[in-house]
């Protein structure tokens, strides 16, 4: 340190100070303004980027809330559609059951009518057959009983007696 103090030269100090001041002046005039402008631009860019990020964040929150609202509305609409579909299905099923019951009733009535007509036809046929058999049996019985002349006379007298009584 003593060496620095002993070697001190006022002229050298003056020129170094003058060069330093000149350098500061030149830097201030030509370099500081562009540097400060660049720093200010950078600061403005950062502020704008932060502002844009905040706006984007708010927009994202708005979009998210809108999406949630849309999802909720879609769920409600889906539930309504499903409810309507169930009601329509139940209505169709009940109508089909009613129609099936009506058709079954008609078929039962038709079957009953067919059975009755078949029964009546069978009864008529049976009566015809019974009457034919009865006539045949009566004919055979009468032939066997009226085989001789005395039996025929006796029968005719009995019939004449019945006619007079009435």
Automatic annotation (TrEMBL):
InterPro entries: ATP_synth_B-like_membr_sf (IPR028987), ATP_synth_b/b'su_bac/chlpt (IPR002146), ATP_synth_F0_bsu_bac (IPR005864), ATP_synthase_B_chain (IPR050059). SUPFAM superfamilies: F1F0 ATP synthase subunit B, membrane domain. One of its GO terms (cellular component) is proton-transporting ATP synthase complex. The chain crosses the membrane at residues 12-32. Residues 46-91 form a coiled coil. It is found in: Cell membrane; Endomembrane system. GO terms for molecular function: proton-transporting ATP synthase activity, rotational mechanism; proton-transporting ATPase activity, rotational mechanism. It comes from the Bacteria. Its main location: membrane. Keywords: ATP synthesis, Cell membrane, CF(0), Coiled coil, Hydrogen ion transport, Ion transport, Membrane, Transmembrane, Transmembrane helix, Transport. It is a single-pass membrane protein. It holds the Pfam family ATP-synt_B. F-type ATPases have 2 components, F(1) - the catalytic core - and F(0) - the membrane proton channel. F(1) has five subunits: alpha(3), beta(3), gamma(1), delta(1), epsilon(1). F(0) has four main subunits: a(1), b(2) and c(10-14). The alpha and beta chains form an alternating ring which encloses part of the gamma chain. F(1) is attached to F(0) by a central stalk formed by the gamma and epsilon chains, while a peripheral stalk is formed by the delta and b chains. F-type ATPases have 2 components, F(1) - the catalytic core - and F(0) - the membrane proton channel. F(1) has five subunits: alpha(3), beta(3), gamma(1), delta(1), epsilon(1). F(0) has three main subunits: a(1), b(2) and c(10-14). The alpha and beta chains form an alternating ring which encloses part of the gamma chain. F(1) is attached to F(0) by a central stalk formed by the gamma and epsilon chains, while a peripheral stalk is formed by the delta and b chains. Component of the F(0) channel, it forms part of the peripheral stalk, linking F(1) to F(0). The b'-subunit is a diverged and duplicated form of b found in plants and photosynthetic bacteria. F(1)F(0) ATP synthase produces ATP from ADP in the presence of a proton or sodium gradient. F-type ATPases consist of two structural domains, F(1) containing the extramembraneous catalytic core and F(0) containing the membrane proton channel, linked together by a central stalk and a peripheral stalk. During catalysis, ATP synthesis in the catalytic domain of F(1) is coupled via a rotary mechanism of the central stalk subunits to proton translocation. Belongs to the ATPase B chain family. NCBIfam families: ATP_synt_b, PRK14471.1. This is ATP synthase subunit b. The gene is atpF.
């Amino acid at each position: 340190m003593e060496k620095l103090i002993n070697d001190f030269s006022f002229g050298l100090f003056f020129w170094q100070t003058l060069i330093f001041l000149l350098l500061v002046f030149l830097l201030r005039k030509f370099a500081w303004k562009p540097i400060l402008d660049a720093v200010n631009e950078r600061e403005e860019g950062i502020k704008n980027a932060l502002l844009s990020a905040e706006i984007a964040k708010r927009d994202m929150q708005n979009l998210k809330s809108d999406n949630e609202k849309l999802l909720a509305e879609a769920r409600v609409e889906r539930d309504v559609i499903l409810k309507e579909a169930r009601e329509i299905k139940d209505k169709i099923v009940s109508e089909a059951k009613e129609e099936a019951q009506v058709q079954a009733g008609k078929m039962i009535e038709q079957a009953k009518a067919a059975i009755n007509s078949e029964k009546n036809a069978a009864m008529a046929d049976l009566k015809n057959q019974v009457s034919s058999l009865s006539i045949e049996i009566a004919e055979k019985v009468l032939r066997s009983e009226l085989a001789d002349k005395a039996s025929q006379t006796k029968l005719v007298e009995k019939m004449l007696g019945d006619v007079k009584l009435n």
